[in-house]
């Protein structure tokens, strides 16, 4: 205990351990890739680096099949086209992004949650020393890079660096669309403690106009303008450079894709069923077309309005959790999207304060995935037709577990924890 | 109309000149134990107008249908193609709208997955520009029998009165392969059918061939394969008869260069899927030793014809360790749809074709036969399955024709010289992927019953899926309402009985 306590008292030791963990994984990855036909490196990393190679040859990154990202990512990985160990440049970059995100978490916990250094380091370690996080970035998945952008956004908002925050939001949405949900909570939160806000003593029904006038603050306008300009500017530049292929692959593809391949989403079996041509005879209401409704109502409208003013980082956790749980596609990489907010929420949460609730939640969350993975394994590797009821039921079960956890998070926030 | 009939007698002892007799304009054979090739060339003007107009739209069209039943391939009929229907064609520049798909469905069966010529065909990658005759578009379909084609010929092409035409068409039923070729230069349609033996091999061929009309010619050869005088040539001896011209069989002896050679060793291969197949089946090729290259320049290859429900991921084939672990050297060519994400029902192409080079284990190349018996060599090709439509069953079975396996070797002679071989068989899908100075030495399949493997693909079982839509929607709506309730009323002071509420921490 004393050793652990001493460890968490020094930021040097925690960050050194975080760096060491990633160095070890990077080297391990190099060895496995060199000697085994089964690669440590993520398949997506080959997609990014191929796209970078196309760029280095003066071609479009979209010349690489399944490259569905902004050309910026391929440009960022340009050094991977240089010979030798430069190929791993991207993984190092993603790992540095991880550490930077962890450092900002630490700063936010210290400055905005007023935590002691030791406690702040402990909670940042949920991210910094998390083997799942370190593995994902050192395998070369870009989710880690997104983490640093989103945490930087949170830090900039909390530090009231509105212009920077606006730019980061525009950049994050350009990078991966889904962070647009944070616009709602940030805009709502910005009303808090704003200098223009009227004293609370004002009583009686306000006119809509005055409510609107109260809502439209300088900060909110500034934030909206910076984010929209950054988003549009990036898109215009990329469109100029890469034309329709850019819009097609980084945006439209994500909007029209049918994810019929099995994944954690509760909609998965329904999407396979209703996109399958043999099913035209049956009477389907195609209700899955409305799947965006509960998802966006919760993550963009209801959760931000109900909670953002109480606690922005935890609201962002709830938003992301709702977005991922109600999404039409869900893979384990998406879990990283909300994991990055756990250090802000957990310190005050029921999950930590009641060992019974926290423990059961964690066990259920893991069991939900295990049940699904077991069915998925039977399908994918043994060829058993587990689509119904097994795979469907386990994805529904996992969804129910997620809903329960979301309810706990929201309740905690409402209780002001 | 021109016809050429060739009987190839594998055992020279099986043939006596008295097994055949020439009388007037006809030739009779009796108990002739031989393979037979029947080639019919029809001028464009002899065809029905409808078909003539359609053919005029194309520069060249080559159809190869191969039976799934294993057969022996004696020289000069050595070349091999995977079972099923293969179509290679080049439209006239303006005529990409050529309605080939409707014609194919009309002639070979309406179940063919060929909705539009533009989308169903794939572009064949031509590595060798010198192979100027390689057609630009390719199509394949599983097709166990050509009874539909036989009926089409009988109903649409045969003169109503000609029973010999109709009988000839029905004999196609027992071919091992049937080729149909058309090109604008020759202005003629050629049908070439190969029978590895008489319908009853123990009796042999007993038939009379007579000239149907004075305007047609029939040439009949009865040949025996002779040992190679020159390693690049094949030689034959036997009799030729031109009906109506020759009164008795004319002895002949000739040798010719050839593109396709038989293997001199006993090597064969087998194909099957490793179990369990799952959604990522692995095709396993087992080759029996010796795997000594026929010549130094020879490289062992396999050419796969993958229907759209199966595909391979070209990116994984770039890793030398991955290739080595499967006993492969390289993926030289891949044409067709390899979209990793699409389910089968959105893929309009017929599938994809892949050319792989196989790694020969060093022990077999050095021909170390100290132990006397070498182990079989195993080559694996990792494949992936697409999602298939939901159905009233748990699994849907889908076919994969056995790939062909051959040594590709440097040849002293070019393709133009090879084409002088009267039995030259061109446009098989894979020759265009090699340089023109290439000869092919074929490894024969050691077949079981059929040269097609089937794989069971798990599909969404509609019989059990009745509750999926309502169940999913119900659970999502309920979850949404629960979250709404928590957002509105959850954590309200007093509205919550839980004791651990630390009111002191509350901000409001």
Explain what this protein looks like in three dimensions.
- The complex is a heterodimer of chains A (417) and B (508).
- Chain A is mostly helical and 417 residues long.
- Chain A has a domain at 259-275 and 286-416.
- Chain A contains 20 helices and no strands.
- In chain A, helix 5 (89-111) packs antiparallel against helix 6 (117-128), helix 8 (143-158) runs antiparallel to helix 9 (162-176) and helix 10 packs parallel to helix 14.
- The longest helix of chain A is centred in the middle third of the chain and has 39 residues, at 218-256.
- The two termini of chain A are 27 Å apart.
- Residues 194-202 of chain A have low confidence and may be disordered.
- Among the domains of chain B are: 1-34 and 197-256, no CATH class; 269-458, no CATH class; 472-508.
- Chain B has helices at 49-55, 100-108, 117-120, 147-157, 163-171, 320-325, 362-365, 415-418, 468-489, and strands at 2-9, 20-23, 26-32, 35-43, 58-66, 84-91, 122-123, 137-141, 177-183, 188-195, 205-210, 217-226, 233-242, 250-257, 260-262, 269-273, 282-287, 299-307, 310-311, 328-336, 351-358, 377-382, 384-385, 395-401, 404-410, 438-443, 452-458.
- Chain B has an eleven-stranded mixed beta sheet. In chain B, strands 15-26-25-18-21-20 form a six-stranded mixed beta sheet. In chain B, strands 2-3-11 form a three-stranded antiparallel beta sheet, with no helix packed on it.
- In chain B, helix 4 packs antiparallel against helix 5 (163-171).
- The longest helix of chain B is centred in the C-terminal third of the chain and has 22 residues, at 468-489.
- Chain B is globular and about 110 Å long.
- Classes of the chains: A mainly alpha (417), B alpha+beta (508).
- Chains A and B meet through helix 3, helix 13, helix 14 and helix 20 of A and helix 6, strand 27 and helix 9 of B.
